[in-house]
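Task: sequence design from structure.
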């Protein structure tokens, strides 16, 4: 079987599906090669953080996720007793959304297929060959050989990524030093609180309701924390450890899923090597503290999607793809640092228990609590420089690379609309508050690169408080600022699509 596409994505989880949809939105021919025959029933991840919900809202996709999920106004850092408060965050989504990964994947797959994405299950990639024109992936599907040629290949195939290994991309880090147990079970006598989290000298335990009478129990037993992650877990072992740590097994029975996981921590040396790129868990592996893995993967996909589409559809230079590594690799480093800090706080020694008491007090300080809530929610990510040079030396400092919330904009025609609504089609967005800042002419970020740009004329920048002192703003397709100016602006393409 022969396939010929522009982009082949290996891995049909949330990251791969989100990336495929972003590319298809821009008219890129893309296929997803997933080794599993059917969707995974178990939900490894259970939460979507504020920035991930913003990523969905940037494309107008958030409604079905919010409708099916359960908002939680607080979160935890290292299972500390003092919760992180999301209520004061600068976002429309001042909560984490409790939503099983299986449902997240189903909704993303439905969206991707609606855009024409070719999702092929049961395809096991076994070899990768790159040349000057593209990448050839080969493998088997139900005993039959297949071959897929693409201009670019993306590994979104998890922490044990075959694509990363075949591309020869290093994955340095540390092996597991501690393992935890997980069980999706029925509880005859569930805890009285909807979210149980405790830590003591015997270990720690978390119990959360999954719905339909099911609960997830996660236990780290001080006596068994060095058990190999691959050793099978029995219901009896989980019950015994939960009783030791929490004083009860809460009538645990009927396991649907039992697993063991560790704190192995690794980061890919390169997110791009030639025509091969990595995203999601294929690029970063860590202890699942705070449920950040799926969320960072979705944000990787958003960053890579518009850049890869620009190269394939707008004439952008391939060097634009280097900015994917430059922007997202530091985010991966921060993710690993954050999860390692949380993992350390989940220890059981007298020293760690004393540190936990100190941190519980510090988190009662609003500024510290908000800082960690922003970090966990993915709202603190900004990029130091633009992926392409600014066309004018008079750009305003402090704006380039900044993430924008979904502000309500007052328009020159007297109407109002949300900022994100101008980004639903995946184009750039030009906001201007004076005639001198209006888009015109034939500006190109690089020779031959003609980005697709929408424009919104604002009443005045003063009428949108957050834009006071800014006459114009160019927003990237991922909701981060490219540049901001006052007074006259450089010229941009004639084929601007005016929204207002």
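Answer:
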């Amino acid at each position: 079987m022969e396939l010929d596409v522009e982009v082949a994505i290996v891995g049909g989880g949330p990251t791969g599906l989100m990336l495929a949809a972003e590319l298809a939105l821009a008219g890129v021919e893309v296929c997803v090669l997933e080794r599993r025959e059917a969707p995974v029933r178990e939900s490894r991840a259970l939460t979507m953080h504020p920035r991930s919900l913003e990523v969905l809202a940037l494309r107008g996709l958030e409604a079905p996720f919010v409708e099916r999920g359960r908002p939680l106004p607080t979160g935890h850092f290292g299972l500390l007793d003092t919760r992180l408060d999301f209520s004061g965050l600068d976002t429309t989504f001042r909560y984490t959304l409790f939503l099983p990964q299986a449902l997240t994947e189903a909704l993303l797959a439905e969206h991707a297929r609606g855009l024409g994405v070719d999702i092929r299950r049961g395809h096991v990639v076994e070899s990768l060959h790159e040349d000057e024109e593209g990448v050839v992936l080969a493998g088997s599907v139900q005993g039959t050989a297949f071959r897929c040629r693409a201009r670019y290949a993306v590994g979104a195939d998890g922490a044990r990524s075959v694509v990363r290994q075949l591309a020869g991309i290093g994955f340095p880090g540390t092996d597991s030093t501690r393992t935890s147990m997980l069980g999706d079970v029925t509880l005859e006598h569930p805890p009285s609180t909807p979210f149980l989290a405790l830590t003591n000298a015997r270990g720690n335990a978390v119990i959360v309701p999954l719905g339909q009478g099911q609960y997830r129990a996660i236990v780290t037993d001080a006596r068994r924390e060095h058990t190999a992650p691959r050793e099978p877990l029995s219901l009896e072992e989980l019950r015994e450890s939960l009783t030791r740590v929490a004083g009860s097994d809460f009538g645990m029975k009927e396991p649907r899923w039992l697993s063991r996981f560790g704190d192995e921590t690794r980061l890919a040396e390169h997110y791009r090597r030639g025509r091969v790129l990595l995203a999601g868990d294929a690029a970063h592996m860590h202890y699942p503290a705070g449920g950040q893995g799926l969320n960072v993967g979705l944000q990787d996909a958003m960053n890579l999607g518009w850049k890869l589409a620009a190269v394939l559809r707008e004439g952008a230079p391939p060097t634009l793809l280097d900015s994917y590594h430059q922007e997202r690799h530091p985010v991966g480093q921060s993710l690993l640092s954050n999860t390692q800090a949380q993992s350390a706080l989940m220890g059981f020694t007298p020293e760690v228990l004393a540190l936990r008491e100190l941190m519980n007090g510090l988190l009662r300080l609003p500024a510290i609590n908000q800082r960690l809530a922003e970090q966990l929610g993915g709202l603190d990510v900004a990029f130091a420089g633009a992926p392409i040079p600014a066309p004018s030396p008079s750009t305003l400092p402090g704006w380039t690379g900044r993430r924008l919330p979904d502000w309500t904009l007052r328009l020159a025609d007297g109407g109002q609309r949300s900022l994100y609504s101008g980004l639903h089609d995946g184009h750039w967005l030009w906001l201007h508050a004076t005639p001198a800042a209006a888009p015109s002419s034939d500006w190109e970020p690089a020779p031959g690169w003609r980005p697709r740009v929408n424009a919104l004329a604002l009443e005045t920048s003063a009428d949108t408080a957050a834009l006071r002192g800014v006459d114009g703003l160019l927003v990237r397709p991922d909701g981060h600022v490219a540049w901001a100016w006052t007074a006259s602006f450089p010229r941009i393409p004639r084929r601007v699509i005016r929204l207002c």
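The two ends are 48 Å apart (CA to CA).
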